[in-house]
Amino acid sequence: MWVVKLGGSLIDSAELQSWLGVLASFGGGRVVIVPGGGPFANQVRRAQDLWGFDDKVAHRMAILAMEQYGLMMTGIRPDLRAASSRMEVERLLREAAVPVWLPGAMTFENPEIPENWQITSDSLAAWLAETMGAEMLVLVKPFEPIGDVLTVHDLCARGIVDPLFPSLTKQGNYESRLFGKTEHGMMERMLVTGMRGGSLIHTRRPELAVVPPAGRARTSKRQHRSSPRIPPTDQRS
């Protein structure tokens, strides 16, 4: 099973339709989609700034923001199916469907999930991957990374993932990869052929990073570039 987190910032992009199409067409019985929070979560931040309610309330509102985005995905692609529990996710996978995870039921009052802004949909996707015994975690972000190996610590330092993501992925028994928003074609090839795509997210520190396995779908022009083109702004949703 693969957990694929689609960033909320794709909501204003035509690429969202392409990603949903690829995952719905080729991910049946294999892929679970985790929605980001996007503009729905941003509205929670604005409301908290205005009214000053605590982080626990804001966290739960942000979880519901993810559910709004997820429900929107099922509206765009009716062949995607909403799932709130592990049992529902597993049932839909057995039926060769593609579940869209609505996280509230599995995360509210869960002692493993801190109720504050330190955790975002990226770490929730990592938690789900570990909980469900996934083979792979894929994060889809609104930029195109360049580089075969990205370290999780660098991504965290740049605000690309939240502060809890490194510890969650370090303990996870799955492979983590980062895709840019235009790389849905690469994801299709990966689902169909098994050829690895995207950038490997290495969970150890930079000095311990290793070369990723062969058989990637990158072009040689991109493979010879060493630094990821990642914006310094926070793209975690």
Written description of the protein model:
- Strand 3, helix 4 and strand 4 form a beta-alpha-beta unit.
- Helix 1 runs parallel beside helix 9, helix 2 runs antiparallel to helix 3 and helix 6 packs parallel to helix 8.
- This protein has one domain: Carbamate kinase.
- The protein is globular.
- The strands form two sheets. The protein has a six-stranded mixed sheet, with helices on both faces. It has a two-stranded parallel ribbon with strand order 3-4.
- The C terminus is likely disordered.
- It has 237 residues and is of the alpha/beta class.
Give the helix proportion (percent range): 40-55%
Alpha-carbon Rg, integer: 17 Å
The CATH H-level homologous superfamily: Acetylglutamate kinase-like
The secondary-structure class comes to alpha/beta
Question: Which strands sit side by side, in order, in the main sheet?
Answer: 2-1-5-7-8-6
Mean pLDDT: 87
Binned strand content:
15-25%
Number of helices: 10
What summary fits the major beta sheet? Answer: 6 strands, mixed
Query: Could you give the count of β-strands?
Result: 8
How many domains?
A: 1
- The fold-level CATH name is Carbamate kinase
Q: CATH top level?
A: Alpha Beta
